[in-house]
Amino acid sequence: MNERQAQNDRAIAKHGSGPDTTLPIVVYVLHLAGIITGGLTSLVGVVIAYVYRGNGPAWLDEHYRYQIRTFWIALLYFGISGLLTLVLIGFLTWLAAVVWLVLRCVKGLKTLNEHRAPDHVDTWWV
């Protein structure tokens, strides 16, 4: 991010007229609903994140990046859990993946509400 973009982001945040955060909130909720729908709503959410990333300030783009990474990492975690159900440990790893997903979405929603980028976007953990 260049200095001019950072100054624009700070000016927008200072005046309280920041970008609309409705779509990122919807994507987080779709990720959470994916727990119940078997990931179908998460798929819709990641498509929205791919379409809208790059269209806002840097901190908002980081949320879209965070949401995209959350989708792909969750897909891996739940896929591994599905395979591990054959040896019965998959139920525990599935529960751990659900907790991971909920924590990650709550963290993202919290920082989105503060109009800042999520911390540690590149992590595989929370």
Automatic annotation (TrEMBL):
InterPro entries (UniProt xref): MamF_MmsF (IPR019109)
Keyword Transport belongs to the record: no
Membrane-related topology note: Multi-pass membrane protein
Localisation: Membrane
Main location as per UniProt: membrane
TM stretches of this protein: 25-52, 72-103
Glycosyltransferase listed as a keyword: no
Alphabetically ordered keywords of this record: Membrane, Transmembrane, Transmembrane helix
Protein name (Swiss-Prot/TrEMBL): Putative membrane protein
Organism: Halomonas ventosae
Lineage: Bacteria, Pseudomonadati, Pseudomonadota, Gammaproteobacteria, Oceanospirillales
